[in-house]
Design a protein that fits this description.
By secondary structure, the chain is an all-alpha fold. The protein is built from three helices and no strands. The two termini are 38 Å apart.
Length: 103
């Protein structure tokens, strides 16, 4: 972020979210009910149940705090491919197995 957090980029993202919501393809009644019921669990205002998920206020300080948390030390990487079982792969020592599914 050479120029820092810019409100114009935030506003552009909000416009894209709004346009994607406005021109989304029609859904089945079942899918619509599923979306509404999921939103009812997280959205306080009943008028917003159908609205797209976005923040209504630009908060540069909050964005900076979140960006500071995005570090390589906090990265959680999952690698899943038969290619990594090959001893000639760049990562030959990937021998850990997930305990529930054995993958």
């Amino acid at each position: 972020l050479k120029e820092g957090v810019q409100e114009r980029i935030y506003q552009e993202q909000q416009q894209l979210i709004s346009l994607n919501y406005k021109y989304q393809p029609k859904t089945t009644p079942y899918s619509f009910a599923k979306i509404i019921s999921r939103n009812m669990q997280t959205i306080q205002n009943p008028k917003d149940y159908r609205m797209p998920p976005y923040r209504s206020v630009f908060d540069a300080q909050l964005i900076r705090r979140i960006l500071k948390l995005l570090t390589p030390e906090r990265l959680l990487l999952f690698v899943s491919s038969p290619r990594f079982k090959d001893p000639t792969s760049p990562w030959p020592n990937l021998d850990q197995v997930e305990k529930w599914y054995g993958t």
